[in-house]
Amino acid sequence: MSGYRTLTEQEAVEYARNIPNLFPEDARLVSREIGDGNLNYVFHIKDERPSGKSVIFKQALPYVRVIGDSWPLTLERARIESEALILEDQLCPSSVPKVYHHDTELALIVMEDLSVYQIMRKGLVEKKRYPNFPKQIGTFLARTLFLTSDLAMSPLEKKQKAASFTNPELCNITENFVFTYPFHDHPSNAYNPLIANVVQRIWNNNELKLEIAKLKEGFMTRGQALLHGDLHTGSIMVTEEDTKVIDPEFAYYGPMGFDIGAVIANLLLNYAAHEGHTPDLQERESYQTYLLETIMEIWNVFENEFRALWNEKAQEPYAKVPGYQDSYLQNILQDTAGYAGCKMMRRVIGLAHVSDLESITDPKLRAKGETLALTIGQELVLQRKTMTSIKDIVNVVVAATQN
Ligand SMILES: Nc1ncnc2c1ncn2[C@@H]1O[C@H](COP(=O)(O)OP(=O)(O)O)[C@@H](O)[C@H]1O
Ligand SMILES: CSC[C@H]1O[C@H](OP(=O)(O)O)[C@H](O)[C@@H]1O
């Protein structure tokens, strides 16, 4: 920590020049801070000479960027993010930006520039479609989750991995801002006044709160696999053909359904937001159907890849016991539904919102989308234990939309 300093755009350029073989000697480097997340600085550094080469510098600050130094936060998250990116690239090649360099003292990662990709959340608001996304993200989920679990690793190796990815401060953000504060009258909450009655009903619903308590307990105690830990559509960059996952600074050993649930929750937040963005019924239903088909395909790819990995590579002595694989996958499905539900509700009631809904300028229209998101979120949590197939998740969404 002693040599830590926050880089300016110019200092980032100087630093880039001193990394061997990163840029040509005669490079004319231009640097721009482009971070739009809650936590860190991100610099885009480009050679304006013909090499045209560019890289991304991501630097952790010793505090939460959007709040300031009143909320200190560990710089260790840059080490976790860098190691998670390197591991994810080994487990699922080309699914993440390449890491070129990591400086522990400066909490800095130098990585591949993905500027030709777009943050998926923005593309979804523009109603873009990504035909290869389900295959790519479903494979990413199956490979990163299966291959870091006790199913694939020796118990010793897995526990060493879990120890090196212990991430208490970032997990605590999730424990508070995903599982606790949004379900209580907490000062950090920020919701549309037009949905105050729906929020109040959630706070008074003890059956719901009991289920959220169980899901939170799972997040805190169930070290099934190395998770990305914050896999929302702002942490996914896409082109029409390709998908890259960024920003695994929340990585830790947790329940597999938390990552799958994050992807599904954010597709469903976008689904709900089109109640406000897309007044034409036919156009809206067409895009919402596309989102539901995407969700089903993601799960189906995940399940097929996961079963294939299990049949080919499982080390666990009980792996071949009849019924174990089916029961394992059913548990993941039910966790997926529950965590998706929590994540949808936190993005409407809690501190950190999503631009899918926030970009609906008319508060009444926004309230419509937000209410749908809260209805779906509650039902996913409450009905999860009866679910046996991805169709059950889709049925919850369709029923909530029709009501
Ligand atoms: N490898 C990359 N290539 C291009 N842009 C990137 C890359 N990594 C991050 N960004 C840009 O920086 C923004 C913030 O990055 P992110 O890793 O999400 O930061 P934070 O941890 O603060 O949320 C992203 O939304 C994206 O626009
Ligand atoms: C005050 S942290 C809130 C929120 O921010 C993180 O998202 P990101 O790093 O992608 O901006 C994470 O989702 C936290 O829960």
UniProtKB/TrEMBL annotation:
Listed EC numbers: 2.7.1.100
SUPFAM superfamilies associated with the record = Protein kinase-like (PK-like)
Report the superkingdom from the record: Bacteria
HAMAP family from the entry? Salvage_MtnK
> Binding of ATP: at which residues?
40, 58, 112-114, 247-249
Where does the record place the Aminoglycoside phosphotransferase domain?
32-265
Upper lineage:
Bacteria, Bacillati, Bacillota, Bacilli, Bacillales
Q: Which InterPro entries match?
A: Aminoglycoside_PTrfase, Kinase-like_dom_sf, Methylthioribose_kinase
Listed pathway(s): Amino-acid biosynthesis; L-methionine biosynthesis via salvage pathway; S-methyl-5-thio-alpha-D-ribose 1-phosphate from S-methyl-5'-thioadenosine (hydrolase route): step 2/2
Which positions are annotated as binding substrate? 230, 346
Subunit details: Homodimer.
Gene Ontology biological process terms from the UniProt entry? L-methionine salvage from methylthioadenosine
Q: Can you tell me which family this protein belongs to?
A: Belongs to the methylthioribose kinase family.
Q: Which organism is it from?
A: Aneurinibacillus thermoaerophilus
- One Pfam entry for this protein is APH
Q: PANTHER family, alphabetically?
A: METHYLTHIORIBOSE KINASE
Q: Which reaction does it catalyse?
A: 5-(methylsulfanyl)-D-ribose + ATP = 5-(methylsulfanyl)-alpha-D-ribose 1-phosphate + ADP + H(+)
GO terms, molecular function: ATP binding; S-methyl-5-thioribose kinase activity
Q: Give the stretches traversing the membrane.
A: none
- State what protein this is by name: Methylthioribose kinase
Going by the record, the broad EC class of this enzyme is transferase
